[in-house]
Write a structure and sequence with these properties.
Elements lengths: L2 H17 L7 H15 L7 H7 L6 H7 L6 H16 L5 E10 L9 E5 L4 E15 L2 E9 L3 H5 L2 H6 L11 H14 L6 E4 L1 H4 L2 H9 L3 E6 L4 E4 L2 E4 L13 E8 L2 E11 L19 E10 L6 E9 L4 H10 L2 H13 L9 H24 L14
Parallel strand pairs: 1-5, 5-6
Antiparallel strand pairs: 1-3, 2-3, 3-4, 6-12, 7-8, 9-10, 10-11, 11-12
Helix pairs in contact: 1-2, 2-3, 2-4, 2-13, 3-4, 5-13, 8-10, 12-13
């Protein structure tokens, strides 16, 4: 790492410290927060309280623990700084907002929101917390910009004792993952984040409330749906998998939806005009898309194995070209890269806190660290084979 690169990192971090200054009532926790972010960015084997304290030159982790626990500062205000910083440094009108969740494996039962539940992180049911995140993807980079901790209903929301022990605020009630996603999309929209598409997996795509909200805001979306998802085609209700025989062979187009770990991700794609109901009630009316918009079913077929099929519900302006829709679907994978970077390089999952406010504080500071990484990499692309981060930060 050259002296110029070290100076660059230091200046960027100092600038972020100035940006978040107003989120803290006192200068001491602000300085500790900057040191915390510096530690998250450093080459520390395990980014827990002790190691981050040692990285900062402290004899004990007391100041770090106080930062995440008792110090007076607003993690939501820092979250808003993350969003404004990302918009400034990575924002583009063609940006894509991506909803997804990730699991944080935990032992015991005291960490806020922890229970045995499915997590894609492990690919099975595990004792874990689940965080719902909003990612931002543009040609300049991709990064996490918002977060919510999922609080299971019966095991947490209705258990006053557990809530009190984990310092869950009284006003926090049950919210499904799609509802948490809707709240984050609303914040990004209110903040003026530049984007064209919303992308998400089937957890969100099959949720009528989220889709209806997006349509009321005239937002374009491309969200995965399961094969049994019902739409209306030809005046009849049908599961999407039953529409495959109706697609003529000449309607399929081979296109790439972006780069993957093994090169370009090339598939065959086709669309079918469909109608959608946002209510499962018998006789419910078809949902009306936004003015000038239409609903489409996008079908993705593997070139190597035609039996490997995926379905996406699309809400887009009439005559939107297939290439644009495919690119939006491809951007959905960018959130996996966001999680990988934030966990491997910024300690997103390496926390040792149990209480609700402390989770938000650590996660938000890790997001801030990852946003700094993304901004520097966008402005100063690293030559292949070179060091990608400052091990002395």
């Amino acid at each position: 790492m050259t002296s110029d690169q070290v100076e660059l990192w230091g200046a960027e971090l100092a600038g972020l410290g100035t940006r978040i200054a107003g989120c803290f009532e006192r200068s001491e926790p602000r300085a500790t927060a900057v040191a915390y972010v510096r530690g998250l960015l450093a080459d520390v084997p395990r980014k827990n309280g002790w190691q981050l304290a040692e990285q900062a030159g402290a004899a004990t982790p007391w100041s770090t623990q106080r930062l995440l626990g008792a110090a007076r500062w607003d993690a939501d205000e820092v979250r808003d700084v993350v969003l404004s910083y990302v918009v400034e440094r990575l924002g583009e009108p063609e940006g894509v907002l991506v909803l997804d969740e990730t699991g944080f494996l935990k032992k015991g039962s005291r960490s806020a929101g922890v229970q045995r539940q499915y997590t894609g992180t492990a690919g099975r049911i595990e004792n874990c917390q689940v965080g719902v995140f909003l990612g931002y993807a543009s040609s300049r980079g991709r990064v996490l910009i918002d977060r919510e901790l999922y609080l299971p209903d019966e095991s947490w929301v209705r258990d006053a004792g557990r809530r009190k022990d984990a310092a869950v605020p009284e006003e926090v009630g049950f919210a499904s993952k799609p509802e948490l996603g809707r709240r984050m999309l609303a914040r990004a929209l209110a903040a003026g984040a530049p984007f064209t598409w919303v992308a998400a997996d089937a957890v969100y795509g099959q949720h009528p409330g989220l889709r209806e909200w997006c349509e009321a805001k005239s937002l374009r979306y491309a969200m995965a749906v399961p094969s049994h998802f019902k739409v209306t085609a030809g005046g009849r209700s049908a599961q999407v998998r039953t529409l495959l025989p109706r697609i003529p062979q000449e309607a399929w187009e081979r296109r790439s939806c972006g780069h993957g770990s093994k090169g370009m991700r090339r598939y065959e794609w086709a669309t079918v005009e469909v109608g959608v109901r946002h209510s499962a009630r018998r006789g419910a009316a078809l949902a009306a898309p936004a003015a000038g918009f239409e609903h489409l079913l996008l079908v993705r077929r593997s070139i190597a194995d035609p039996a490997e099929i995926a379905f996406f519900l699309v809400h887009a302006p009439v005559r939107t070209v297939l290439a644009e829709v495919v690119a939006a679907v491809g951007a959905r994978w960018s959130v996996e890269e966001c999680f990988e970077t934030a966990k491997n390089e910024c300690g997103l999952d390496q926390y040792e806190v149990r209480k609700w406010p402390a989770w938000y504080r650590h996660i938000t500071l890790a997001m801030l660290a990852a946003a700094l990484l993304a901004a520097i990499r966008a402005d100063h692309p690293t030559p292949k084979g070179a060091v990608t981060r400052d091990e002395s930060v």
